[in-house]
Amino acid sequence: HLPMVALIGRPNVGKSTLFNRLIKRRVSITHDMAGVTRDSIFSEVRGETRTYMLIDTGGLVPDSSDEIEISIFDQAREAMAGADLILFIVDGRTGLHPQDEQVGQYLRQSGKEVRVLVNKVDGPEQEETLAADFYSLGFPLQCVSASHGFGMGDLREMIETAL
Ligand code: GDP
Ligand code: MG
């Protein structure tokens, strides 16, 4: 079967924007509002050296912060179970969130292959300041801008090298 690569992370960090950019089509719905409910979306990605299945995890429930929290862990757990590589997306603009730390702890215990993607780094000059917060998560880290395209070449290489 194809290797599975799962995008996980808090609502509104840019998972779907990144998914659309990696698959080069607009399948996944992106939204300014946090916690738009939707099912996970799968798409095959043919890279330079590897073909893999990319999963945009969704299904986050708005209104209750508790439910969002539960849903993030359900999402993380579900994606983890089947994934060969987990792309843990965080928001460089908002900085490290307590939920990021919780998910990070969970992922460290899983022993799975994980990469942190610091998204919304819209240019190379922002890289150092925006990334600084996230090294503490303890995973290899890459800065990207899903909406502007910054760092996508390095990201594609990072994914295919990990598979
Ligand atoms: P998701 O909930 O994690 O799937 O996040 P979305 O992909 O729906 O994006 C949430 C919001 O963040 C949208 O308004 C996007 O336009 C915005 N966004 C996503 N990626 C970037 C980025 O790289 N830079 C900036 N500035 N905004 C972004
Ligand atoms: Mg989304």
TrEMBL record:
Q: Which residues bind GTP 1?
A: 9-16, 56-60, 119-122
Q: Which segments constitute the EngA-type G domain?
A: 3-163
Q: How does it assemble?
A: Associates with the 50S ribosomal subunit.
Q: Identify its protein family.
A: Belongs to the TRAFAC class TrmE-Era-EngA-EngB-Septin-like GTPase superfamily. EngA (Der) GTPase family.
What exactly does this protein do? Answer: GTPase that plays an essential role in the late steps of ribosome biogenesis.
Question: Which protein, by its recorded name, is this?
Answer: GTPase Der
Tell me what organism the protein belongs to.
Answer: Desulfomicrobium baculatum (strain DSM 4028 / VKM B-1378 / X) (Desulfovibrio baculatus)
Whichever gene encodes this chain, its name is der
Which residues of the complete protein does this chain represent?
Answer: 4 to 166 of 445
